Amino acid sequence: MEASAQIGVTGLAVMGRNLARNFARNGFTVAVHNRTPGRTKTLIEEFGHEGTFVPARSPQEFVAALERPRRLLIMVKAGEATDEVIEEFAPLLEAGDMIIDGGNAHFADTRRRERALRERGLHFVGSGVSGGEEGALHGPSIMPGGSAESYAVLGPMLERISAHVDGEPCCTHIGTDGSGHFVKMVHNGIEYADMQLIAEAYHLLRDVGGHTPAEIAETFREWNRGRLDSYLVGITAEVLAHTDAGTGRPFVDIVRDAAEQKGTGRWTVQTALDLGSPVTAIAEATFARVASSRTGLRAAYRPLPGGRRQRLDPDVAGRFTRDVEQALYASKVIAYDQGWTMIRDAAAEYGWDIDLGAVAKIWRGGCIIRAAFLDRIRAAHAATPDLVSLLAEERFAAEITDAQQAWRTVVATAAHRGVPVPAFSAALSSYDTLRGEHLPAALIQGQRDYFGAHTYRRTDREGTYHTLWSEPGRLEVRTDGGA
Ligand code: NBP
After folding, report:
1. pLDDT tens for residues 334-350?
2. Distance 295 CA to ligand 1 centre (A)
3. Distance CA 393, CA 304 (A)
4. Of 117, 164, 250, 399, which has the fewest Cβ atoms less than 10 A away?
5. Which atom of ligand 1 is nearest to the CA of 84?
6. Active site residue 191
7. Alpha helices, H only, 208-355
8. Nearest CA to ligand 1 atom 11
């Protein structure tokens, strides 16, 4: 077989098939392969006319169809299947060839695979792909890791098939080894937080504001014309406006209130604990999904009293809606800031040189959290490359200052009325924690020293100290050898 394909895709379920079609529609010759040949056949029969495909029945045929250096994109179920496919293809490849994993791999697996393949002379590019099946076909946001050398060859192709915003591709080289999959994981964590914040806003407008789903859909439509303009706010309006055909009831009232997850939010929180990144809004959003599914616990708590449930008078409900917009926006800034902090922490831990502004840039299109707001984050990082936090930027700081009274009112109102707002409150507490001049952490250090002689540092002099708590006089001793 003549080696004519610039890229090969193995794994032709929804994501692989649509990415292969996207490459072909963009003028690339695409070799296609799937473990079960039926999927390859269907792709050619249904979409073969869209571009130049080279169907392959065996791994050998597939590899032989690829131009060198070979670019082989794996789109199979993440986990063991990815290792199996790598083991099947790697022996057929030669030095300088590249294997790209576009599945939702855990970044630690990607680091392991990259190291192992590098030792065999192969490039391994773990690449986050966001946007679901529609994005894969029409232009996803792509987050490739791996070596700069592999990006030089592969990058232009990925950039071509990615979404574009203002003429710029939603694809950039994130950094080495597992950085691409890490950034994709954090994207999903932020997505969890954003969805939860929007859901809490809806809950407040419904249960406190007394509005119907159709009215709330209108509110979200209006918000979507302002600073909250985003894909998620847009689809929220669509979902809320939808009426169930069978019952005539609002669609949102016939769906069971138990949220599911595929696990990337959980990975974000687990990893954040290892890195010491305080991603509290993302964590609360993840726990909120988990709690919603705990039927037994919910049944045990259900008979217990809550707050004052009556709705607001219509004359104050309008103002409350505006306050919820402020609270949603402020909480969103904090949740995104937490995500960026986590990426910064991982970059320091793993030695990745990540352009934080470029991450915002490639999330402006193609992915689930795409939003006008991301352009602001991109601009903030462009203006100050070592920006420590979004809140260190003047405009974000001014907006949070403006929003904070409304934000506090909304969280307090929710507490009074017994409406759960875990992500709103976590975001507000995070804000108050990080801006607070004095934290009760001093007392915690005292407790730790009391029961475990864990020592403490003083505010007025250098050194570490321990107090002899069980001795009369509670003498303080310096423990670091200093005078
Ligand atoms: P699935 O995750 O459902 O995987 C199905 C594909 O994996 C089929 O091609 C199947 O081949 C192949 N496969 C399996 Br399962 N085990 C295999 C093995 N041991 N050897 C070879 N092939 C094997 O497909 P998907 O939903 O298209 O997702 C693909 C990847 O993209 C996943 O990692 C997913 O997490 C990620 N992703 C998905 C989305 C989304 O919205 N769906 C978005 C972003 C990323 P077969 O046909 O022979 O069974």
Report:
1. 999 999 999 999 999 99
2. 31
3. 44
4. 164
5. 19
6. yes
7. 213-223, 231-241, 251-254, 264-275, 280-292, 295-301, 314-350
8. 35
